[in-house]
Specification:
194 residues, mainly alpha
């Protein structure tokens, strides 16, 4: 069995593939809104030092990633261990060396990696315009506005993904998440810009 097949099987027997998907969306959304917040904050403060902005955003992205991995790993380890103990009680058997035992050891790490990688990946995508501008690439708009546009697009696409998963209108779901991002940007603009 290949590694990918084994991972899918472990997620299947623990019924955690939905949890991993939710963690990706939730923490991806957190990453997008965090980057949006930092970049809008720098926009209203009229700071143009791209290296400072990139470093602040990277610091937040790394913190979100570490927090995502560790918090999901700790909580999922406790949940998987509780479920294994309940299953062992029902079966009156030690399942530590079974596939269920293996799942208890590996699934929390997999979910933690999904949870931590989501905000990091989305943050890096949002920072691409800033890196391009700092490397001297000419953009069709100021780099901070380009990064804000990428952040808004990212939140919209996460909403589209949620709509597809839920079998609802992908457009309505995308517009809903985009509206949340726009509200966030407006609140930062109002409170930080005053």
């Amino acid at each position: 069995m290949s590694l990918l097949s084994r991972v899918i099987f472990l997620l299947h027997i623990t019924r955690t593939h939905g949890i991993a998907r939710r963690y990706f969306v939730v923490n991806g959304f957190d990453g997008a809104l965090t980057m949006l917040g930092i970049i809008v904050g720098f926009t209203v403060s009229a700071s143009t030092d791209l290296v400072l902005i990139i470093n602040a955003c990277l610091g937040a992205a790394i913190a979100l990633a570490v927090s995502g991995v560790s918090s999901a790993y700790v909580s999922e380890t406790a949940e998987r261990r509780r479920e294994l103990t309940a299953l062992e009680s029902s079966m009156i058997a030690d399942l530590e060396e079974s596939l269920h035992g293996e799942a208890v050891r590996w699934v929390p790490l997999l979910i933690g990696l999904v949870n931590g990688s989501a905000p990091l990946i989305i943050s890096i995508v949002i920072l691409v315009p800033l890196w391009l501008a700092s490397a001297g690439v000419s953009l069709p708009m100021p780099p901070l506005y380009a990064a804000i546009l990428v952040a808004l697009l990212s939140t919209f696409l996460l909403g589209v993904f949620l709509g597809r998963i839920g079998g609802t209108s992908w457009l309505r779901s995308g517009v809903r998440t985009l509206s949340i991002a726009l509200l966030t940007a407006a609140l930062i603009y109002v409170f930080a810009g005053s």
